[in-house]
Please model this.
Amino acid sequence: MSHHVLHIFTHGSLLGKDRGFLLCKAPEAEERRMPLEDIRAVVIAARGVQISSNAISSLLEQDAILLHCNERYQPCGWTAPINRITDLRAFQNQVQAPARLNQRLWQEMLRVKTRNQSCVLQLEGITSAHLERATKHPAINEADCARRYWQLFFPAIGYTATRRERRENTPPNQMLNYGYSVLAALCHRALIIHGLLPQLGVHHKPRYRSEPLVYDLMEPFRPMVDRMLAEFLRESDDLSLRAWAKKVGTTLKDFRVTKDNYTLKLLDALDAAAASLARAYAQSKAEVLWLPQMTP
Model:
């Protein structure tokens, strides 16, 4: 089965449902059809888009997620399947997990994230002894590693900043915000379908309008968005946010990671990571957690 992140960029598009298909009719264009079961997410990045209630409910029944963008193509909200617990035991295991287990899970997430950040730098021809040493340390200093990473990453992609400013209205930060938002929506979906509660984090704390576990799970995947951005800035003639959004959708669908003796799509890797987190809680073993590691 093929899985897709569908981007809607044409203003005034109409989305509907016909039997098992999502229909998309754009002004002055032929109607397009896609099997509902093949869709992981729909990113609505255009004005005046109309979508029928049947299409919305059918997408949610297939465990897809809808991501809504403002006029600057910036994600501003999502529509997700109801927070149902598909496996009550998974929920109970998560709630009852000891703090010690969550600490070990978080350190593993940070370790893989740091390894993947190091890989991103290596792909740009940069070696960071600091990040390499950090992955071997029993307790990773997240803030220190992030500071060192951005000091090297931004100049490598031709940007003068040496720190990540999430609220700064500059092209690299805007693009990273968009890519991370799509990634967060897909992580949210993966957690729900594997019976985990997004509001109960491994490390991040609950607060108003937040899903702490989403931001925990996505940490090791963030460098993959950074890698997409470096490739995009290096290879693309069109550096608009719209072109970047298309790059994110295509790469999420096509990018593959290694798991054991085979490869799987990044979209499937998100599901595999969420499933392994549920097993880690069930068995009270951090070693069960599987997270994708990039290779240079």
Strands lie at 4-8, 14-18, 21-25, 32-35, 39-44, 50-51, 65-69, 75-79, 256-259, 262-265.
